[in-house]
Amino acid sequence: MRRRFHQWLAPGLCVVALTSAHPTFAQNPASQATPQSVPVLPGDVGAPSPGAGTGAGIPGQGGAAPASAGTPENANGSDSAADGTSPLTQPGADPAGTGVLNEGPDVTAFTGLGGTVGDTGNGFFGMIGDGSPTSRVRTFARPGNVPSPPGIPNPGVPPTPPRIPRVGTNAVAILPSIQQLKISENQSPRPQDRIYFSFNSFNDVNGTLNDRFGSQFSGVNIYRYVLGLEKTFFEGRGSAGLRIPIHNLSSQSTLPGFGGTSTSAGDLAAIFKYAFWDDRDAGNLMSAGLMVSMPTGPGNFAGAKGFVSPRNTALTPFIGYVFSRGDFYLQGFTSLEVPLDQNEATILYNDLGVGYFVYKAAEPGQFLSAIAPTFEVHVNTPLNNRGFYNIQDLTTNTYDAVNLTSGCNFILGGRGVLTLGVVTPVTGPRPFDIESVAQFNLRF
After folding, report:
1. Using only C-alpha atoms, what is the Rg of the chain?
2. Buried b / exposed e along 95-108 (16+ C-beta atoms within 10 A)
3. pTM, to two decimals
4. Of the candidates 439, 404, 3, 392, which has an alpha carbon nearest to the alpha carbon of residue 188?
């Protein structure tokens, strides 16, 4: 009998040590499989000396031996636990002696974003976004016909009045104004501690409208770089952040002095966010906040000649939400952009995204911790100043747009998130041909 206990005790103690040091158990203590208690016999290494303590639980020392679930021989004389399972099949056991422990059913995959998927993993990805559809119309006054000098009048024939100079329709320019960023662009409804960077490439901006009106501009491409910071407060329920874009514009034009490449900073935006309902165990959240866009950028978009941009303060109240179920998650924003200039359009934005974890690292410390593809739908609805086909009315310059975004999130090194995406407009007139997106977030 004593020899059987010695043969079982050594691997049992190894199992206990390995279980307590296993990184998955250290990450999520709630999911630890409790090692079974092992009685220590007198004379064994590390056993208490006879007479030490009360001797409870040691045969012959004033106490009865406990019938532990993991002992080789229980009170009923069997090698099984009270629930009928063998201790060799319990979580943390190593029946084959290979060093690979059995994983219990409660072991939760590690996401590398401050916890497990069940509590804080889902919802930390920011939405990719789609860019603002707002554009501007500008008419360059250029005489089409010059009046001829009066000739010698004929007797009895009234003189012909001179023709009034008119503006040729080929002097119209549909100019881009992707000046104010939407709340859904590289933002999560969940408050976070992070610094982030975004790159957006808009190809052939307003190409459809430029062709329709015979514009003097073509090949308009915009490259936008965004730097941002977000810091939480109120134990992570609220956050405040700043972000600023840098625009680079290149275009071709037949008008003298126009076209070429130019770069400048855009409008600074401040974002305030608060989660009024946060169920971290389920990964669900609802938040509300306000984004304030301030006219800190130049009057010309990207500093380009002739590309006039609106200079006004815009207030954007919003509601955000995140809902998770298993490896699926859904998040979105509903926001209303209200410019303080009545000549600018008030736009309702509805942004919805879904994602799915196709890969999760089993342990922390791996460089690639998780992969989650995502798909988003963005509906942009102007509530006033609608339309785009009357070039004489410069206030009717905004139109409905629906854009589809597809991409993928990669969690790197536990704290970094790399996101790649593509945005495709599906309604006309198309604000751009295609948009490419790259984002990186670093949590601290």
Report:
1. 34
2. eeeeeebbeeeebb
3. 0.68
4. 439
